[in-house]
Amino acid sequence: xxxxxxxxxxxxxxxxxxxxxxxxxxxxxxxxxxxxxxxxxxxxxxxxxxxxxxxxxxxxxxxxxxxxxxxxxxxxxxxxxxxxxxxxxxxxxxxxxxxxxxxxxxxxxxxxxxxxxxxxxxxxxxxxxxxxxxxxxxxxxxxxxxxxxxxxxxxxxxxxxxxxxxxxxxxxxxxxxxxxxxxxxxxxxxxxxxxxxxxxxxxxxxxxxxxxxxxxxxxxxxxxxxxxxxxxxxxxxxxxxxxxxxxxxxxxxxxxxxxxxxxxxxxxxxxxxxxxxxxxxxxxxxxxxxxxxxxxxxxxxxxxxxxxxxxxxx
Length: 314
What we know:
globular, 5-stranded antiparallel sheet, mainly beta
């Protein structure tokens, strides 16, 4: 079977400009093989995999209700609407904005944008090259909240693509994101988190299935790691997001902000030194599955950006 890729491969000869950390230095052709299932990123750094198998805390969250109820606890996703027919509901950050409007203001008190016609999430420039995005810091949410803006070590290594403010493809293909199979990935951060009110990520569902655009539903587990009292092992704090609706085969610009407050998750953010993410497919009307080793068509989560907005790190 010919497994076509979700995005055109435009960049096979370019080097990753951010890959300067030898601990995460990859060949620029890694994950650019030409077939969807071979683009999977499933590296678990350090002791994250070991700690994930024996998490000490687990919390289930359902999606917040669409009607604003400030006392509700749960995760936010896209506009907040749900249902297989609501593809546009899987775009942007409208639900988070309704519940937490103060999280989305620039210094002038204006609401930051997810994106709009004529305004991209990045400044146009050479694909794979560096560009000055400072003109967007007070305009676009992702540029305002990007982790590498204030903490330079997040700009190093293969996973720097998760911290640079780019939440859409913009022609960058797999250099803008990573495809995650159900094996997931785990990473250690270059700093220790002092405080963050909430965690969020820009994601959509990728596929090699040529069916029409649709909504796919996934359960997503995000686990945060802290050092044990002895400092020799990691302790995992897991948050399970049930039935997340994601845009699938609907273009690489239709990412959704999915996340939750640490208060709703019942987790103290102080001391977090790493995270992992894994997932399982609940439903795809096309019949594509989440087993990358199986015959047939496949779905994978495309992770573009990871946010700990307005956080402080040591």
